[in-house]
Write a structure and sequence with these properties.
By secondary structure, the chain is α/β, with parallel strands linked by helices. Among the domains are: 1-71, no CATH class; 413-419 and 432-606, Leucine-rich repeat, LRR (right-handed beta-alpha superhelix) (Alpha-Beta Horseshoe). Helices cover 28% and strands 15% of the residues. α3 (47-53) packs antiparallel against α4 (58-71). The longest helix has 17 residues, at 257-273. The two termini are 33 Å apart.
């Protein structure tokens, strides 16, 4: 990318467009310059591939625009001095442009459909914060997906107008750290919005995804659901407000009042307006006041939601029969279930899942907290599981594995918010593996299961017999977290050679176990180097614990370095130069700089380790120059 010092994002992008390869002419007989051929090529290419293709020449760039503008994203900022996106008035000028001079990037001919607005003060009063009324009038009808973050609507009227007058074709709305300023009627009359030429407020029948995170003030749920009758995905996290007539979910709210309000409104609208709800995703796991309790059963039974994804906090007063009833209402459609419960006083709900309910469609299951602690005897009821996470608590070993484990964002938030309380284990609980009746499962094979994560302070080292039973039961695992000693580790390395992620916690494997070099054996025993496809290895230890084994010269040279596909590890290394030379240590830290900690002191130093509360949005919201922010739209 050429550098234009002192220029804006638009200036830099315009300079780059002049450097594109020359146009060879439309009447060229080369088939790779034929419009039909190119459109076919771009139809099957990913957004990242198309971003490369369009650098070939100007014809390729122009032919790529319909696909990349309809599927990609543009990030707009409200100030021309911000460098993290395209100034929205520059984009608006392009949309209004009538020729190549005024619209060099063809925004008018090929507008974007997916918008990210960041750090906006959204006001539709002309001249208040730029030409926003014109922007929403011209660009709103084109919007298919809209993400608004770190922003504020000037008033409730601005919120209503922007989202229910100008975006009739919106399919997905995501609000993050965005608020609506509150003012009493007549308080701000001198700055009223002139909407005489705007379309009337209407129901947005196209909207299917509503995702609200850490928003302070928003209109009531009745207001939302009445205008979004076709919603299929509903996610809310950490709503806090105390304004009358608005969403109410302070931290002190409990016993599921917020969830009850949502379900009641949906039931009333279904009765009075004839709405047939098609909600497929309900994620209120981190919504204050949305705990599931017994009294919600009647509402779930009445609505009969075709849920395929359910993420829920099971409340203190929920009983096993109520949880069973909830599962029965969506047993035929449920594919993903994430449930958390901290109260462990009810033995039946703690260890009874799924209470005899057959969940044939379920492919992802995550049960966390001290109050949900089943053994593996339920597996016959979930024959098509692909991912199974049973986490009594979320320790640092699991958090360190990060994106190598499914649902790491959810697990990180649970750990960060310390939803699991206390330092004791579950009341009278045995370990998940130790309490499983393996003889009763001898005829079962979970061939679809690719991930097994078992985490908890009560967990013990699994015997080699139990590990062998798991190998037979789950032969195709690719991701595993389990407590292991030498014998179990050898069975793991021999029985699951296809493993890509292995986290051992508790970790009681010594140097002989890691390398397989036992002086009492003539042949090398199964060891870590047998896992040739391993991408991540975690020698589990809690931050304030002391591991039984550190990496040494022998284990690094004979177990770690032979793994050509290894991308990251979490481990301790010996500070004693007699056990690990400076040269080997430097090579180790050079290859794996982010996930090594030093073991010369009791409290370990985590190089490059980010606390679970620091969210990483690079996969979704990173954007440098506006011309390069296009990315795959995450249709849900």
């Amino acid at each position: 990318m050429s550098e234009v010092k002192g220029g804006t994002k638009k200036t830099v992008a315009m300079a780059e467009s002049q450097e594109a390869s020359p146009d060879p002419g439309r009447d060229c007989t080369d088939p790779m310059l034929n419009s039909v051929v190119l459109q076919t090529l771009f139809k099957y290419g990913s957004i990242e591939e198309i971003k490369t293709y369009r650098q070939v020449c100007r014809i390729w760039n122009e032919e790529s625009l319909p696909r990349i503008r309809s599927r990609g994203w543009v990030k707009l900022v409200s100030s021309k001095f911000e460098t993290d996106g395209l100034y929205f008035e520059d984009y608006l000028d392009g949309v209004n442009g009538a020729d190549a001079v005024s619209d060099p990037f063809q925004f008018r001919k090929h507008p974007y459909n997916n918008f990210k607005l960041s750090n906006f003060k959204i006001s539709l009063v002309d001249g208040d914060y730029g030409r926003q009324l014109e922007f929403w009038s011209k660009c709103g009808p084109k919007m298919k997906q809209l993400k608004i973050s770190n922003s504020c609507f000037r008033s409730v009227e601005d919120f209503h107008a922007a989202l229910f007058r100008f975006v009739p074709n919106l399919k997905s709305l995501k609000l993050k750290d965005t608020t609506v300023a509150w003012s009493e009627p007549g308080e701000d009359d001198e700055n009223t919005i002139d909407l005489k030429d705007a379309p009337p407020e209407s129901t947005v029948n196209s909207l299917q995804v509503l995702d609200i995170k850490t928003v302070g003030i928003l209109p009531s749920w009745n207001w939302f659901f009445r205008r979004y009758p076709k919603i299929k995905s509903f996610t809310v996290s950490n709503l806090l407000t105390n304004m009358p007539g608005f969403v109410m979910a302070p931290l002190t709210v409990s016993k599921g009042y917020e969830l009850e309000e949502i379900l009641k409104i949906m039931a009333i609208l279904a009765r009075d307006c004839g709405i047939s709800w098609e909600l497929e995703k309900l994620d209120v796991l981190f919504m204050c006041g949305a705990h599931f309790e017994n009294r919600h059963c009647e509402l779930f039974g009445h609505l009969k939601l075709p849920l395929s994804t359910l993420c829920l906090h099971i409340g203190h007063f929920a009983s096993a029969p109520a949880f069973k009833f909830l599962l029965e209402t969506c047993a035929n459609t449920l594919r993903k279930l994430v449930a958390y419960r901290e109260d462990d006083r009810d033995h039946e709900i703690r260890q009874g899942f799924p209470f005899g309910v057959q969940l044939d469609a379920l492919s992802e299951l995550c049960l966390t907290g001290r109050g949900l602690r089943p053994n593996l005897d339920f597996l016959p009821f979930t024959p098509n599981l692909k991912s199974l996470i049973l986490a009594q608590d979320i320790g640092s070993s699991l958090i360190a594995a990060s994106s190598h484990v499914s649902g790491h964002e959810t697990l990180g938030v649970i750990s960060c918010r310390k939803m699991e309380s206390g330092g004791r284990g579950s009341r009278g609980a045995k370990t998940v593996i130790g309490n499983t009746d393996f003889p009763g499962l001898e005829h079962l094979v979970c061939s679809n299961l690719e991930e097994l994560i078992i985490s908890g302070r009560d967990e013990k080292v699994c015997s080699s017999g139990h590990v062998a039973a798991l190998c037979r039961l789950m032969p195709n695992l690719k991701k595993l977290m389990l407590g292991l000693g030498n014998d179990g580790f050898r069975v793991t390395c021999e029985g699951w050679k296809q493993l890509e992620v292995l986290v051992v916690q508790p970790f009681e494997v010594d140097q002989i176990g890691l390398t397989g070099n036992d002086p009492l054996q003539q042949q090398r025993l199964p060891n870590l180097s047998d896992l040739t496809g391993l991408r991540y290895f975690g020698m589990g230890v809690e931050i304030f614990g002391r591991p039984n084994t550190h990496l040494s010269n022998e284990s690094v040279l004979n177990a770690i370095f032979p793994l050509k596909n290894l991308e990251a590890i979490t481990a301790g290394y010996e500070a004693d130069v007699d056990k690990m030379s400076v040269e080997i240590r430097d090579q180790l830290l050079s290859k794996f700089p982010k996930f090594i900690w030093k073991s010369s002191v009791r409290v370990y130093e985590w190089s490059g380790f980010r606390a679970s509360g620091d969210t990483d949005e690079s996969s979704e919201d990173d954007s440098d120059d506006w011309s390069d922010v296009e990315e795959n739209s995450n249709d849900e």
